[in-house]
Write a structure and sequence with these properties.
The chain is built from six helices and seven strands. A seven-stranded mixed β-sheet has the order 1-7-6-5-2-3-4, sandwiched between helices. α3 links the parallel β3 and β4. α1 crosses α2 and α5 crosses α6. The chain is globular and about 50 Å long.
Length: about 200
Protein backbone atom coordinates (compact mmCIF):
# COMPACT_ATOMS: atom_id res chain seq x y z
CA UNK A 1 0.00 0.00 0.00
CA UNK A 2 1.55 3.31 -1.07
CA UNK A 3 1.37 6.63 0.67
CA UNK A 4 3.12 9.98 0.76
CA UNK A 5 3.89 12.33 3.59
CA UNK A 6 3.43 16.06 3.08
CA UNK A 7 3.25 19.10 5.32
CA UNK A 8 -0.11 20.63 6.15
CA UNK A 9 -0.13 24.08 7.73
CA UNK A 10 -2.85 25.33 10.06
CA UNK A 11 -3.36 29.02 10.76
CA UNK A 12 -4.65 30.01 14.21
CA UNK A 13 -7.36 32.17 12.68
CA UNK A 14 -8.59 33.09 9.18
CA UNK A 15 -7.80 36.30 7.37
CA UNK A 16 -5.42 38.46 5.38
CA UNK A 17 -2.65 38.20 7.97
CA UNK A 18 -1.93 34.73 6.54
CA UNK A 19 -1.45 35.86 2.93
CA UNK A 20 2.36 35.87 2.76
CA UNK A 21 2.60 32.44 4.41
CA UNK A 22 -0.16 31.07 2.17
CA UNK A 23 1.76 32.32 -0.87
CA UNK A 24 4.96 30.69 0.34
CA UNK A 25 3.16 27.38 1.00
CA UNK A 26 1.47 27.49 -2.41
CA UNK A 27 4.77 27.98 -4.23
CA UNK A 28 6.42 25.29 -2.11
CA UNK A 29 3.74 22.70 -2.92
CA UNK A 30 3.56 23.58 -6.61
CA UNK A 31 7.30 23.09 -6.96
CA UNK A 32 7.23 19.90 -4.89
CA UNK A 33 4.56 18.35 -7.17
CA UNK A 34 5.70 19.86 -10.47
CA UNK A 35 2.46 21.83 -10.81
CA UNK A 36 2.70 24.69 -13.29
CA UNK A 37 -0.19 26.99 -12.30
CA UNK A 38 -1.35 28.70 -9.13
CA UNK A 39 -4.95 29.93 -9.18
CA UNK A 40 -5.59 32.69 -6.66
CA UNK A 41 -8.67 34.70 -5.73
CA UNK A 42 -8.11 38.44 -5.56
CA UNK A 43 -10.72 41.17 -5.25
CA UNK A 44 -8.56 44.30 -5.39
CA UNK A 45 -5.30 42.88 -6.72
CA UNK A 46 -3.32 43.09 -3.48
CA UNK A 47 -3.43 39.34 -2.85
CA UNK A 48 -2.47 38.65 -6.47
CA UNK A 49 0.55 40.95 -6.13
CA UNK A 50 1.65 39.13 -2.96
CA UNK A 51 1.55 35.86 -4.87
CA UNK A 52 3.42 37.40 -7.79
CA UNK A 53 6.17 38.39 -5.35
CA UNK A 54 6.30 34.89 -3.83
CA UNK A 55 6.52 33.33 -7.32
CA UNK A 56 9.40 35.55 -8.44
CA UNK A 57 12.28 33.54 -9.88
CA UNK A 58 10.13 30.48 -10.59
CA UNK A 59 8.57 29.29 -13.83
CA UNK A 60 5.13 29.07 -12.21
CA UNK A 61 2.16 30.71 -13.93
CA UNK A 62 -0.27 32.90 -12.00
CA UNK A 63 -3.99 32.80 -12.77
CA UNK A 64 -5.95 35.45 -10.88
CA UNK A 65 -9.72 35.15 -10.50
CA UNK A 66 -11.56 38.34 -9.59
CA UNK A 67 -15.08 39.37 -8.71
CA UNK A 68 -17.35 40.13 -11.64
CA UNK A 69 -18.11 43.70 -12.63
CA UNK A 70 -21.04 44.81 -10.51
CA UNK A 71 -20.36 42.42 -7.61
CA UNK A 72 -20.41 45.21 -5.01
CA UNK A 73 -21.73 48.16 -7.02
CA UNK A 74 -23.47 48.13 -10.40
CA UNK A 75 -21.03 48.71 -13.26
CA UNK A 76 -17.94 48.77 -11.02
CA UNK A 77 -14.92 46.43 -11.14
CA UNK A 78 -13.18 46.27 -7.76
CA UNK A 79 -9.79 45.21 -9.13
CA UNK A 80 -7.25 48.04 -9.10
CA UNK A 81 -6.24 49.03 -12.64
CA UNK A 82 -2.60 49.55 -11.64
CA UNK A 83 -2.41 46.05 -10.16
CA UNK A 84 -4.02 44.61 -13.30
CA UNK A 85 -1.47 46.38 -15.51
CA UNK A 86 1.49 45.11 -13.44
CA UNK A 87 0.17 41.54 -13.38
CA UNK A 88 -0.62 41.44 -17.10
CA UNK A 89 2.79 42.89 -17.97
CA UNK A 90 4.39 40.01 -16.07
CA UNK A 91 2.30 37.37 -17.83
CA UNK A 92 -0.40 36.68 -15.26
CA UNK A 93 -3.87 35.81 -16.54
CA UNK A 94 -6.71 37.77 -14.95
CA UNK A 95 -10.08 36.04 -15.17
CA UNK A 96 -13.34 37.77 -14.35
CA UNK A 97 -16.22 35.33 -14.44
CA UNK A 98 -19.58 34.83 -12.81
CA UNK A 99 -19.42 33.05 -9.46
CA UNK A 100 -19.93 29.40 -10.29
CA UNK A 101 -21.42 28.56 -6.88
CA UNK A 102 -23.90 31.44 -6.72
CA UNK A 103 -24.25 33.68 -9.79
CA UNK A 104 -27.86 33.64 -10.93
CA UNK A 105 -28.85 31.50 -7.94
CA UNK A 106 -28.16 34.45 -5.63
CA UNK A 107 -30.78 36.54 -7.45
CA UNK A 108 -33.39 33.84 -6.81
CA UNK A 109 -32.48 33.60 -3.13
CA UNK A 110 -32.60 37.38 -2.67
CA UNK A 111 -35.89 37.78 -4.50
CA UNK A 112 -38.77 38.68 -2.19
CA UNK A 113 -41.13 36.83 -4.55
CA UNK A 114 -39.16 33.59 -4.85
CA UNK A 115 -36.93 33.29 -1.79
CA UNK A 116 -35.39 30.08 -0.51
CA UNK A 117 -31.99 28.56 -1.16
CA UNK A 118 -30.81 26.56 -4.13
CA UNK A 119 -28.90 23.28 -4.32
CA UNK A 120 -25.90 25.20 -5.70
CA UNK A 121 -25.88 27.50 -2.69
CA UNK A 122 -26.18 24.47 -0.40
CA UNK A 123 -22.97 23.06 -1.91
CA UNK A 124 -21.22 26.41 -1.44
CA UNK A 125 -22.40 26.71 2.15
CA UNK A 126 -21.28 23.15 2.94
CA UNK A 127 -17.77 23.89 1.67
CA UNK A 128 -17.67 27.17 3.67
CA UNK A 129 -18.90 25.75 6.96
CA UNK A 130 -17.58 22.21 7.00
CA UNK A 131 -14.04 22.93 5.80
CA UNK A 132 -13.27 26.64 5.30
CA UNK A 133 -14.54 29.72 3.48
CA UNK A 134 -11.27 29.75 1.58
CA UNK A 135 -11.87 26.22 0.30
CA UNK A 136 -15.20 27.28 -1.20
CA UNK A 137 -13.44 30.26 -2.81
CA UNK A 138 -10.57 28.12 -4.15
CA UNK A 139 -12.95 25.55 -5.63
CA UNK A 140 -15.08 28.25 -7.21
CA UNK A 141 -12.05 30.01 -8.71
CA UNK A 142 -10.88 26.75 -10.28
CA UNK A 143 -14.34 26.22 -11.83
CA UNK A 144 -14.34 29.77 -13.22
CA UNK A 145 -10.78 29.49 -14.56
CA UNK A 146 -11.54 26.14 -16.22
CA UNK A 147 -14.73 27.50 -17.76
CA UNK A 148 -12.76 30.45 -19.18
CA UNK A 149 -10.07 28.16 -20.61
CA UNK A 150 -7.33 29.62 -18.39
CA UNK A 151 -6.47 26.20 -16.92
CA UNK A 152 -6.72 22.67 -18.25
CA UNK A 153 -8.97 20.10 -16.60
CA UNK A 154 -6.20 17.55 -17.25
CA UNK A 155 -3.57 19.07 -14.95
CA UNK A 156 -3.63 19.68 -11.21
CA UNK A 157 -3.36 23.25 -9.97
CA UNK A 158 -2.60 24.81 -6.64
CA UNK A 159 -5.68 26.84 -5.73
CA UNK A 160 -5.91 29.58 -3.13
CA UNK A 161 -8.82 31.32 -1.42
CA UNK A 162 -9.42 33.39 1.66
CA UNK A 163 -11.89 34.56 4.24
CA UNK A 164 -13.16 38.08 3.49
CA UNK A 165 -9.74 39.33 2.30
CA UNK A 166 -6.28 37.98 1.69
CA UNK A 167 -5.43 34.29 1.45
CA UNK A 168 -5.66 31.63 4.15
CA UNK A 169 -6.51 28.39 2.35
CA UNK A 170 -4.25 26.55 -0.10
CA UNK A 171 -5.12 23.26 -1.78
CA UNK A 172 -4.25 21.06 -4.73
CA UNK A 173 -7.16 20.51 -7.08
CA UNK A 174 -7.81 18.47 -10.18
CA UNK A 175 -10.02 20.93 -12.09
CA UNK A 176 -13.40 20.45 -13.72
CA UNK A 177 -15.83 22.68 -15.54
CA UNK A 178 -18.85 23.99 -13.68
CA UNK A 179 -21.14 21.73 -15.72
CA UNK A 180 -19.12 18.70 -14.53
CA UNK A 181 -18.60 19.93 -10.96
CA UNK A 182 -18.56 16.47 -9.39
CA UNK A 183 -15.48 15.55 -11.45
CA UNK A 184 -13.48 18.18 -9.52
CA UNK A 185 -11.24 16.69 -6.85
CA UNK A 186 -9.64 18.46 -3.92
CA UNK A 187 -6.58 16.24 -3.72
CA UNK A 188 -4.62 17.96 -0.95
CA UNK A 189 -5.20 20.58 1.70
CA UNK A 190 -1.92 22.44 2.02
CA UNK A 191 -2.97 25.17 4.47
CA UNK A 192 -6.16 26.37 6.13
CA UNK A 193 -7.38 28.18 9.21
CA UNK A 194 -7.96 25.76 12.11
CA UNK A 195 -10.50 28.00 13.80
CA UNK A 196 -13.17 29.65 11.70
Amino acid sequence: MGFVTRNIYYFDAPGAVNTSDAARFAVERARELGIKKIVVASTSGRTALAFRDAMEGTDLELVVVTHVVGFSKPGEWEFEEEAAAILRAEGAKIITGTHALSGLERAVTRSSKLGGSSRTEAIAEALRRVVAVGLKVAVECVLIAADQGAISIDEEVVAVGGTASGADTVCVIRPAHTATFFDLQVREIVAMPRNR
